[in-house]
Amino acid sequence: MASKERDVGRLVPLERLDNMKWMEKECYLAVVNHLVSAGNPDARFIVGVMLVFLHQDMEQGLLFLDKAAIAATRR
């Protein structure tokens, strides 16, 4: 069951989550972090950008951006 959830989470496009309360930071981050753990490239991209530009953590940010790019090419 968990592997099926992971497979679905990997493919969920974030812009398609119509019922998501995007302005509620805790809800947004919970969904994004869940999707990152499922290997979702869109979520990894968002976290990578946040790490680079908000937290100025270039090393970790580029790691997430690299994983996002690799996963996106496999779609």
Report on the structure:
There is one protein chain. This protein is mainly α and 75 residues long. The chain has a domain at 41-75. It has helices spanning 2-11, 25-37, 41-54, 58-73. Helix 3 packs antiparallel against helix 4.
List keywords for this structure.
single chain; mainly alpha; 4 helices
Topology:
Layout: H1 2-11, H2 25-37, H3 41-54, H4 58-73
Helix pairs in contact: 2-3, 3-4
What is the β-strand count? Answer: 0
Given the helix and strand composition, which structural class is it? mainly alpha
Radius of gyration over all CA atoms, rounded? 12 Å
For the sheet with most strands, the description reads:
none
Spans where pLDDT lies below 50 across 5 or more residues: none
Please provide the ordered H/E string of secondary-structure elements: HHHH
Q: Helicity level, as a percent range?
A: over 70%
Rounded mean pLDDT score: 81
Number of helices: 4
Shape: flat
- What percentage of amino acids are in beta strands? under 5%
* N-to-C span: 22 Å
Brief summary:
With 75 residues, this protein is an all-alpha fold. It has 4 helices and no strands.
